[in-house]
Amino acid sequence: MQVVKELLKRRFREAMSGRKLFLALSKKIAHIDGKKTAFIVFPEHDTELNFYGLAYLDDFATESSYDSFVIVTSDSIVAKSASSFSQKIETVSIVSDAEIDELVSYYELYNFCDDFFCISLEKPEGRRGYNIIGRNGLSKEQFVKFGIYKMFTKESDLRHFCYVGDDSDVKSFVQGEWMQK
Q1: In the chain, what is the greatest distance between 2 CA atoms, to the nearest angstrom?
Q2: 92 has which bridge partners?
Q3: pLDDT digits over 114-138, tens only?
Q4: In whole angstroms, how large is the CA radius of gyration of the chain?
Q5: Are 132 and 143 contacting, i.e. CB atoms less than 8 angstroms apart?
Q6: What are the tens digits of pLDDT across the range 8-49?
């Protein structure tokens, strides 16, 4: 019984730290009056998943009537490349993996925001994307498009994205060169 108590206390502390982070992020975007803004969290360091999470932002905005996005990530490539995918990104916050876990713990404890989307196969708790990827040909791209963003009505093709800069890793990511490897 003591072990369960300690586990619950730890999870609650994580969630409260996540709440503090969410409030701090919310203050950053307080200037966005009247805009419907979504929080898009990238907790994984999965190149393919993160690429599709960014690549479908504008289609998601159109289909779900979002005016802007707040990106939260610990992945430097996502942070550096996000603006190449969408002009609707208001801010990109780079946080630690632990802070992302705390933010997701808060969301798991209390669904505080209907506009919170987690680009992950396994977070929030209970999501089991790894169990369905590959079944009946389901790809990570489809998982993001249909499972996370819930875009069922619009048929869209990925467009080509452009990165102007000197970072070869970001250029490779944005232009999808990792797909050929």
Answers
A1: 57
A2: 71
A3: 888 999 988 887 677 777 888 888 8
A4: 17
A5: yes
A6: 888 888 878 888 888 888 776 655 667 888 999 999 999 999
